Amino acid sequence: MDFQPPIINLLIVAPLLITMGAGLFLMLLNIFCKRDGVYYWLTLAAIAAALVQNVAMWGHEYGTFIARGSYPMVVSDNFSVFLNSILLLSGIGTLLISRNYLHRTKLERPEFYMLMLFSLSGMMMMGMANDLILVFVALELLSIPLYIMAGLAVSRDDSKESAMKYFLLGAFSSGIFVYGIALIYGATGATALPAVYAVLEAGSPLAMAGTAFLMVGFAFKIGAVPFHMWTPDVYEGAPTVVTAFMSVGAKVAGFAALLRVFTVALPAMSDAWMGALALIAALTLIIGNVVALMQTNIKRMLGYSSIAHAGYLLIGVAAAGQHSEAVGSVLLYMLAYLFTTMGAFGVVIALEHKLGEGIMLEDYKGLAKRNPWLSAAMLVFMLSLTGVPPTGGFSGKFYIFRSAVEANLWWLAIIAIMTSVVSGYYYLRVVFYMYMFDGDRTEPVYAGTALKTGLLIALVGTLWLGFFPAGWFELAYKAVIGTTQLLAGG
Amino acid sequence: MGNSFVFMLLAVIAVGSAIGMLVSRDAVHSALFLVLNFITIAVFYVVLNAPFLAMVQVTVYAGAIMVLFMFVIMLLGAERLRGMWGDRPSELVFAAFLGFLLVVTFLIALVMEGKTAVSANMIDSSPVALGLRLFEGYVFPFEVVGILLLSAMVGVVILTISNKRGKNV
Amino acid sequence: MSEITINSYVILSTILFVIGALGVLLRRNAIIVFMSIEMMLNAANLLFVAFSRHLGNLDGQVLVFFVITVAAAEVAVGLALIVAIFRTKKSIDIDTLNLMKG
Hints:
The complex is a heterotrimer of chains A (490), B (169) and C (102).
Chain A: H1 14-32, H2 36-55, E1 62-66, E2 72-76, H3 78-104, H4 110-128, H5 132-150, H6 157-188, H7 193-199, H8 205-222, H9 230-237, H10 240-265, H11 270-292, H12 298-320, H13 325-351, H14 367-370, H15 372-386, H16 392-406, H17 410-436, H18 449-467, H19 469-478
Antiparallel strand pairs in A: 1-2
Helix pairs in contact in A: 1-2, 1-4, 2-3, 2-4, 3-4, 3-10, 3-13, 3-18, 4-5, 4-10, 5-6, 5-10, 6-8, 6-9, 8-10, 9-10, 9-12, 10-12, 10-13, 11-12, 11-17, 12-13, 12-16, 12-17, 13-15, 13-16, 13-18, 13-19, 15-17, 15-18, 16-17, 16-18
Chain B: H1 4-23, H2 27-47, H3 51-76, H4 90-113, H5 127-137, H6 139-168
Helix pairs in contact in B: 1-2, 2-3
Chain C: H1 6-26, H2 30-55, H3 59-89
Helix pairs in contact in C: 1-2, 2-3
């Protein structure tokens, strides 16, 4: 028995190493340096560096950590580069909108940035993992820091309780997920995605049950009905910057792993999971949009809205079982979702004058008079979330619906269009409050330079995607899942 | 895969202790039932040719983790609650129902298939072989788990220490 | 009694898994809910080891390491949360925490 080291190319995991390394560095720095600004800028620099390194890998397909006679553990292809860019941008967006907020709510401490960097590396790993066990480890690496970040406002009960709820349901779902991995391992004797693909035969009950368990685990993470019940409470209780971070990051990462696992490892079961995902998508759309109608707290409303958006994304995933172009439409939708959601949360943060205050819909009355620019930005984001042209939300929905129709999911496209119309009611209600009412609020609006920059980027992104979606779609279409992972190492 | 008498005996203990954990009113009793359950599973590991894992199971799970549980239960003095069973909204019951449906279908499918091929040779499962496999095939997740444990540690410090800091502010 | 096959192990671990899941869904005490989650992870581990023996493949045993380590990390965070909540609420009853209002 002799040791044969795996083939390792660290350059491929460089974005991960940068974010994880920066997290470790901040931890050491914590001993010497007590100034919070340093951590902020270092984190921003690390994420930007990771973004540059990540974009440089566009157009190639790599695999690394290849053991003898086995498949790569980590892969990088256009799909993962595209998703990592979205995730890193969401990290930058979170930092931009959090600058002033963390200060005035006294939540700023080095650990926030550390945990954010660790969570971000877990998110990126989800899209790069080529082995079910790495998907599991990445899922935990993204979740555990998020549980803690949700409870960051330790002095407030609702923050701690939302952390607790997130934690219990998250741990429950990862238990289900591990059981699914064990069943798939039993059916195929492997956990590497391509190896599972190579061995799996359709109709094996073990693999069928394993697929179902994996699906439930993912559904919890992305907040799909009927496993969505944690979303509104956690969104409401967590500090708003953390809510913004997880509403984009955790969801995009969940979809990344969902897409890769289901299309690379489990195409043999695509008949089964396509139907199940389509059903979950329909339920998610209906319940998410209808319950959002009754919300009076904007964070809760955005929580239900994020459930609804998971529904639209799931349509694309279900369609991806038929033709791979649908993956492109999911990616484009995620990009639009990133800009729009980050922007909307940016406005929410600007109005949250104290921790947990100023987040009711009532507080938006008369905003147009108090701060016309902010309310104009919110108007664009709300239109984009509804899916009104010419915004990014419209482009995203357009391509998703098109891929649904191409995959013969007519009924689902019709439900999606109808629920979009319903969603107009609660999104436009915010606009109505801002423009049609006179408010009596006198609290200041906290829009510092960083937040304004963030809002500007989000606004430009949303409108750019709305006016010129074709170029972005080309890009997203090129980002379909690569084939390197199918090659076994020497 | 082992003597059927040993299997049945262990299975009865495992399921019995699991049910004991589920229905105990007192959290301390639940924890003790869980320890018994974990030790039974460790014996299963020995039967299944995984002696090293059996040792890890006893030391890490039944030992360290359960001691931590006991410690917290005792620290909080919260072993008993007024009510035992929660009143949860219908969604959860619906989810539980779905889960049951899934498991039952699965068991039926499995028994119908009746696959019994148990022919694999005994493999070398010594710590050396395990270590080699771990570092040849799973280096990357191994390193990542290190970061995971670190972030959990940071989290524990934040969640418990900063309580005091919050009061001073 | 018939020969013990992999099916017996699958059924046993499924029973343990379901008991764990029931504990999560039905109990009120946060610590017991949490212990039930550990039971679910253990059921998965048992399945890994049984399949590893059944298939003559060592990978299943290696995967158990990862599950145990992740479980340890989860236990640390979970118990810290429970302690933090208990300090102000003086209770670990899930239903009094307004947690499950949907």
